[in-house]
């Protein structure tokens, strides 16, 4: 067991890789009653194409990671959620584009729910009949999200941006891909991606890490696993141009919603990628928020309302910056976005404002270390990126005006796409 301590943040945790390969990370928070444990695999919605250690390519339908998440909660005739509830614990799971995670929280004793978490995640109990039944449930869920205007706007924006990358698909896939998923594909995908050596268990609790580690080891020694066949996600070669320059659709909404997204290149190195995200985020906050004196004028003129914002997301093989708003003044909003992009690409920010925003983000980073969910999710993602948790937090300190100028210059030539959500009665 190794202890990692960071003096800047006043935090420490212990970690150990077990004999079966499972990586365990335990944070002790003695002043809190709550405990949270998260078990995760790097299998996400992007993993439609994988390659194993022998160079064999494996292709899976869109949505298979999300489908597995649903099926993991079956343990014979038992309802996993009900079992956790009886133990005084709340359990949940999520699938993102880059990982699938299962977690519980409790203020009671952690022994029983921790054993249950390890047990249900490490055993796939499914049948042909249950798989076919689940398809209808998942398709119904997908249709529900499609009927939510914000979700649909985001989906259509991704579909407009990407030609080849799996981001063009919903995390859950679509009707066709879900219906095509077979029992064998689910079993193969599980075997490749849910081996202990591919996974991580993060715990944040008041409990003694040594006692928790002993409990986890006791659970794992009772189980046997096949030799791991290492697998990795295939990178995508994404064309520079968006799939479509513009797209419009209608829904039952009272006001039009717009998104304008710029397509950027991905960045392989995780630290460079994190720095680039910070640089763009700083500029977005500087020129597309209330920090910009023009922001109130845009509100007063009805160009935007309270439904307005921006996002930046960079990965190894993709990238985007998105602006969205609810507005009837399409051309005026696009003019604002173009002006904002010009300021961002020219790095129009003072050293004083840069320092102010860096201090604000540092405060947010410190506060996030009191959030058990934030600790677990952030650590999981840093681990799968093969990055040091605290080093990623420190990247913010290194940012200079020169970094912002270099990173944001890429937005000058970035191609964009416009997506419009119009009221159904709008011609």
Q: Mind sketching the topology for me?
A:
Blueprint: E1 2-6, E2 11-17, E3 23-28, E4 35-41, E5 49-52, E6 57-59, H1 64-71, E7 74-75, E8 78-79, H2 80-86, E9 89-95, E10 100-106, H3 111-121, H4 128-146, H5 149-161, H6 175-180, H7 183-193, E11 200-205, H8 209-221, E12 231-233, E13 246-251, E14 257-263, H9 270-287, H10 294-300, E15 308-314, E16 319-326, H11 330-345, H12 351-368, H13 372-384, H14 389-398, H15 401-408, E17 416-423
In short:
Helix content is 42%, strand content 22%. It is an alpha+beta fold.
Describe this structure in words.
The longest helix has 19 residues. Helix 1 crosses helix 7. This protein has 15 helices and 17 strands. It folds into 2 domains: 232 residues, Cytochrome Bc1 Complex, Chain A, domain 1; 178 residues, Cytochrome Bc1 Complex, Chain A, domain 1 (2-Layer Sandwich). A 7-stranded mixed beta sheet has the order 1-2-3-11-4-10-9, sandwiched between helices. It has a 5-stranded mixed beta sheet with strand order 13-17-14-16-15, with helices on both faces. Strands 6-5-12 form a 3-stranded antiparallel beta sheet, with no helix packed on it. Helix content is 42%, strand content 22%.
């Amino acid at each position: 067991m190794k202890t990692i301590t960071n003096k800047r943040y006043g935090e420490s945790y212990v970690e150990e890789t077990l004999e079966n390969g499972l990586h365990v990370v335990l944070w002790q928070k003695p002043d809190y009653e709550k405990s949270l444990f998260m078990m995760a695999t790097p299998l996400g919605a992007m993993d439609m194409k994988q390659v194993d250690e022998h160079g064999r390519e494996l292709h899976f339908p869109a949505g298979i990671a999300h489908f597995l998440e649903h099926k993991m909660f079956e343990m014979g005739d038992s309802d996993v959620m009900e079992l956790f509830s009886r133990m005084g614990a709340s359990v949940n799971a999520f699938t993102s584009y880059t990982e699938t995670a299962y977690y519980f929280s409790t203020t009671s004793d952690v022994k029983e729910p921790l054993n249950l978490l390890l047990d249900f995640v490490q055993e796939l109990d499914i049948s042909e009949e249950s798989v076919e039944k689940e398809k209808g449930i998942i398709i119904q869920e997908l249709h529900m999200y499609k009927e939510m205007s914000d979700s649909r706007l985001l989906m259509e924006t991704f579909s407009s941006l990407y030609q080849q990358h799996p981001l063009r698909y919903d995390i859950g896939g679509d009707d066709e891909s879900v219906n095509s998923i077979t029992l064998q594909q689910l079993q193969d995908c599980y075997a490749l991606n849910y081996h202990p050596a591919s996974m991580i268990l993060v715990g944040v609790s008041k409990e003694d890490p040594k006692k928790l580690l002993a409990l986890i080891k006791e659970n794992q020694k009772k189980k046997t696993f096949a030799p791991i066949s290492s697998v990795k996600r295939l990178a995508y070669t994404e064309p520079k141009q968006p799939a479509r320059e513009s797209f419009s659709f209608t829904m039952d909404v009272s006001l039009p919603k717009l998104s304008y997204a710029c397509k950027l290149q991905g960045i392989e190195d995780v630290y460079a990628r994190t720095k680039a995200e910070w640089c763009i985020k700083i500029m977005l906050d500087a020129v597309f928020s209330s920090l910009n004196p023009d922001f109130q004028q845009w509100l007063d003129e009805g160009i935007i309302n309270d439904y307005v914002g921006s996002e930046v997301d960079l990965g190894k093989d993709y990238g985007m910056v998105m602006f969205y708003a609810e507005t009837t003044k399409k051309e005026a909003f696009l003019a604002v976005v173009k002006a904002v992009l010009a300021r961002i690409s020219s790095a129009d920010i003072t050293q004083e404002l840069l320092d102010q925003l860096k201090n604000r983000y540092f405060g947010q980073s410190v506060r996030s270390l009191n959030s058990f969910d934030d600790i677990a999710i952030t650590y999981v993602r840093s681990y799968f990126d093969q990055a040091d948790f605290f080093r990623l937090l420190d990247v913010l300190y290194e940012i200079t005006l020169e970094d912002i100028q270099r990173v944001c210059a890429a937005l000058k030539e970035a191609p964009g796409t416009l997506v419009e959500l119009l009221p159904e009665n709008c011609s």
